[in-house]
Amino acid sequence: MRQKIKIPRIVKIEKISGYKIQCMFNNGESRILDFVKIFKQWNVTESDFEYPLLDEKEFEKVKLRNFTLSWPNIEIKIKGENGEELTLPYEIGADVLYELSDSIKEPSKYRYGRLIRSARLKAGLTQEQLAMRSGTTRFYISRIENDKTDLEMSTFRKIVEAGLGKKLKLTIE
Predict the structure, then answer these.
(1) What is the mean pLDDT of the chain?
(2) How far is 81 from 88, CA to CA, in rounded Å?
(3) Based on the number of CB atoms within 10 Å of its own CB, is 155 exposed (0-12), middle (13-18) or buried (19 or more)?
(4) Helix 138-145 crosses helix 127-134 at what angle (to 10 degrees)?
(5) pLDDT band at residue 168, thresholds of 50, 70 and 90?
(6) In whole angstroms, what is the distance from residue 63 CA to residue 76 CA?
(7) For labeling, which of 15, 107, 134, 138 is most exposed (least CB within 10 Å)?
(8) Three-class SS of residue 45?
């Protein structure tokens, strides 16, 4: 069986506040990068590529490029395969950034587990009954209700429509 390799990628810069950047990763998580803490951990000095980023105006010029954070205002010169000199923007790999980031608890409006639990209790169903009606397991329903697992849209629909007897309606604002 072929295994999926999950390589972290940044799909959106959500917010920049001082030296903190909130990013959405390809797994759907929003995470915060605190560069004051990161630069301190890295012991950034004047001889480092990152040093100009200690100036907040330079730091805020961050862009999303190739699914990672990039600072086009900081140029790095490297030798290419043919020995030619290349000038590239300063970037930090998304895998490194993911490891350095901190998880953010999503606002409750994004937690579908609470919605399912509330609807299940309102319908007077146990987790076991909901699982039987929707073709899942009690363990899976428990994990969903406690926001411990991702949920595919088709499964969400089964739980809502077959299990709870409700109609699923989504909006994008």
Answers:
(1) 90
(2) 14
(3) middle
(4) 110
(5) confident
(6) 16
(7) 107
(8) coil
